Amino acid sequence: MRVIVEGVTFERLVDAAFNQIRQYSKSDVAVTIRLLEAIACIATYTRNFKQREALRRQAEMILNSSREQISHEQDQKDVQERYHQVIKALKQNLFG
Fold first, then answer.
1. Which candidate, 72, 96, 86, places its Cα nearest to that of 40?
2. How far is residue 4 CA from its own chain's centroid?
3. Alpha helix stretches (DSSP H) within the chain
4. Residues 6-33, buried b or exposed e (16+ Cβ, 10 A)?
5. Which of 31, 39, 59, 60 is spaced 20 to 30 A from 49 at the CA atom?
6. Is residue 53's pLDDT more than 90?
7. 71-82 residue pLDDT tens
8. What span, in angstroms and rounded, lies between the C-alpha atoms of 96 and 87?
9. Are the beta carbons of 55 and 86 closer than 8 angstroms?
10. What is the C-alpha to C-alpha distance for residues 73 and 47, in angstroms, rounded to an integer?
11. How distant is the alpha carbon of residue 2 from its chain centre?
């Protein structure tokens, strides 16, 4: 008997790790901020454009959800600041 299994890609792993949490916590400011902080941390370990793009895409979805679901202005600013930290981390890894 032979088992053929498709390997796990970084992109699928990122989606599996973040999609459900993002979807169920989109109105929770603390969870939203922690998700973005986790993405910024993971970004420091990425090795190529595809990996950084997977993280950027998740961060963008988190930001868009927060714009729709979080009404307090200061909370929006906090989320936006964490999003910019993600983008900075992704760029540092790219150029640094």
1. 86
2. 30
3. 10-24, 29-43, 49-69, 73-95
4. eeeebeeebeeebeebbeebbeebeebb
5. 31
6. yes
7. 999 999 999 999
8. 13
9. yes
10. 35
11. 36
Q: What is the mean pLDDT of the chain?
A: 92
Using an 8 Å Cβ cutoff, are 82 and 33 in contact? yes
CA–CA separation, 23 and 5 (whole Å): 28
Query: What is the arithmetic mean of pLDDT over 17-22?
Result: 94
Residues in the chain: 96
Q: Which amino acid is it at 72?
A: H
Q: Cβ contacts of residue 46 below 8 Å, gap of 6+? A: 52, 55, 90, 93
In the predicted structure, residue 96 carries a pLDDT above the cut 60:
no
